[in-house]
Amino acid sequence: MFICGELLSVQMEPVSKLLQIEEQLPIFLYIVGHNNSNRQAQDRFQHSGQTISKVFRHVLKRQVQLAPKFFIQTSHKTIPHQTLSNPKFSPFFDKCLGALDGVHIPASVLAHKTAPYRSRKGFLSQNVLGVCDFGMQFMYMRVGWKGTAHQHWVVHDAWSKDFKIRQGFFYLADAGYGLSRNVLASGYQLEQQYDLVLACACLHNINVGKNGYYDIIFDESLAMAEQYKAIYTKDPPPPRAGVF
Which residue range or ranges hold the DUF8040 domain (predicted)? Predict the structure, then answer.
């Protein structure tokens, strides 16, 4: 098994003489891949909780040490074939190396340390920066930032450390990162933002005027849309009294 061989290549003291890496890796994947608990792993693999914990930490350390080998940034010397083979991309994105974005990963934090980890999404998290190439592989990760950190801080911290981009090349990102020489962020001009509000309101009125109070396209449930149609097509609902 390829992954087992790679893990064995990492020079570390073995966690157990009885447990081979071929059993340690499934324990780790069982917990990480399925969000299972230590107790569930005990029942599945018939080992004590202490052994499960040791194996999990051991494989995790080995995996982290392997990261530099498999996180390889795209060469600046060649243009990705995904770009060259598509006239929609080339030559406009010949200097584009991939895309970057942030994601909030849920975090378990002690009660008296939760405040810095409370993200704008409402849960405790770490703010992680991920960078991918056109082959859908991660080239770089910046972990460890608290949930309250803005994406701008995370990416600039990465640039100040070990995430280097040669002049003239760039990554794609969303509007939260802003435009720079190394990041091409999506977005609309301010005047277009104004027009978008009016356009969306206009589409809403056209849709309601044409389809009435039900709307199959925008409704997730066709059955629910049919219920609305049966109720509202004959007579619109009467106005309700109260404060709205």
Answer: 6-62
